[in-house]
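Per-record layout

source: Clostridium thermobutyricum
name: Putative amidase domain-containing protein
length: 324
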Amino acid sequence: MRSLLDTHIIKNLISTFIKNNDKKNNRYFLNYQTGLLDLFNSRINFNTKWYKKNALFFRNSYSIDLKKIYFSRNIAFVFINLKTLYNINNFNDNSIDISKFCFILSKISKYNWIIDFIVSYEVSSDIYKKIENNNYYYDALIQNNMNLISHYKILLDNINTFSLKSFNNQFNNEFTRNLRTFDKKKCIEYAQKYALNYNKEFKSFDKSGGDCTNFVSQAIWYGGIKQTKTWKPYTNPWLRVNELRNYLIYNNIAREYSSINKNSSGSIVQFYNKDRKTWTHSGIITYVSNNDILYCCHSYDKLNFPLSIAYPSIYPKIRIITPY
């Protein structure tokens, strides 16, 4: 009986917290002793200035899929899939993100719980997996919060060094004139069709290392890049982030950019993981506007997702790989 009542209270608390969407009264749900309140405020401070700098505005709606909840004395572990729908100015197609989170809460009175930790699978995948396997340490969770607070402080101090795009790429006109057979419209079409509903004609590696680059390879193959003995399902260049980049660049199939330009739709975007100190994630750019860039990806399943939310907040560096 206790668990049923507590589950109901916890579900309502998490739902209210998420739907408040960064409002300041959310601070009453968060435990300041674990650093979560400071982390929440640090993220709000950075996002507010970042969105203002880039003239960004999102109206969001949410749905929560409770995957698992279990209790250990007065501690609750709650795993959810959060589906977010973004209403983006001047963009009429769907923009959807499906993210995994673990909420860890402690009971502070008979009918009250407080959130100690919120662990995002995309941001802190190693810690998330350890919690799933009941192989985590409280101190590691505290340290993760401290690291993220430091991360947002560095971003805020250096906010003027980050830019979503540059429309003054010196190679832009030359590159456009020399396009080969790659059809970026077909690539985008494929990415949007299968971003949230995986193509069953291909294996999924979502539960065994990640499916992001497998998905990207499928999309650029559909866009016209021919398979070879080296690059085909499921070779290393087909499946792995850096190997795909090296294959495309060294075989003169694509050109690499450090920023996005007006011809970047249909390009690959790759993301740098600051903790692993390497490039770990890939997606397909589907839309470029004056204000934002949208992309699709697998593993952290996203359909026309705003790049401004992922970069630089989650990933401090990106690179753009544009096929000929």
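summary: The chain has two domains: 2-160, 172-323. Strands lie at 58-72, 75-88, 96-109, 112-120, 254-257, 268-273, 278-288, 293-297, 302-306, 317-323.
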